Amino acid sequence: MEDFSNEIWKPIVDYEGLYEVSSLGRVRSVDRVVRGNYGHSQPKKGTILKGRVDKDGYIDIVLSKNCKTKHFRAHRLVAIAFIPNPSNKEQVNHINECPSDNRVDNLEWVTCKENINYGTRTSKMVETRVQRGILSKPVIQIDAATKQVIAEYRSMHVAERETGAKDSSISRCCYGKQKLAKGFLWKFK
Questions:
Q1: Distance of CA 97 to CAs 37, 107, 108, 136, 172, Å?
Q2: Closest to 15 (Cα-Cα) out of 30, 26, 4, 3
Q3: Using one digit for the tens of pLDDT, what is the confidence trace for 126-171?
Q4: Is the domain 9-122 a CATH 3.90.75.20 member?
Q5: CB-side neighbour CA atoms (13 Å) of 139
Q6: pLDDT over 70 at 124, yes or no
C-alpha cells in the first residue's frame, strides 16, 4: 500500500478548478458544480483519474474542459506544476528510466539531446526494435542506376554498420516510404 500522507496537490495549468496533479504523479478531478440535464446545477464529486499506459509505458491522462478533451502525459503535468524550468528545456526525463514512475523527485527538465543521451535509453530503443524484428529482417542493397544487387545483409542494423546508411532510412525504403538511402535502393530479402 502506498503512503499518500506527504502528497501535495497543485492545480493543473489551464484546468484550474477542474483538475489537480500531485507530487506523487496522480491526477484528480476536483469537487465542483456542473450543469446537469435541463440546465440544473448539481454537485460532482472529484475522483482520482486512472489514465492508461501507452505503448511506450507512459501514463496518458485525458482532461476535459468546455466539452473538449485533450490527452496529456502525466509526467509532463507533474513537471509543469512542481519543477521550475528557468532554462526553458522542452522535455521531461524519468531519472530512474521507468516511464510510469511520475513522482516529482524522479523527474527533471532536459533538452532533447540530454534526454536521448541519458542512461540506457538509446540501447534499449535499439534492443526493442531488434526484438520486434524491425532491425533483424534481411535486406538487399541495390544500385540505383543499374538495379543490380550490390550486397545482402542479415539485418538493417548490420547494413547500417557496414554502409553508413541509417537503419531508419533503410526501413523507409523497404516499406516504400522513401526512394533511396545513402544513394541506394533497398528491399527486404
A1: 46, 10, 11, 25, 29
A2: 30
A3: 666 665 555 578 999 999 999 999 999 988 888 988 999 998 899 9
A4: yes
A5: 30
A6: no
Residue with the three cell numbers 476535459: 64
Percent of the chain whose predicted confidence (pLDDT) is above 70: 89
C-alpha 72/C-alpha 70 separation (Å) is 7
Q: Residue 153 phi/psi, 5° resolution?
A: -125, 145
C-alpha cell at 38: 435541463
Q: Where are the domains of the chain?
A: 9-122, 139-188
pLDDT digits (tens, 9 = 90+) for 38-69: 878 888 899 999 999 999 899 999 999 988 99
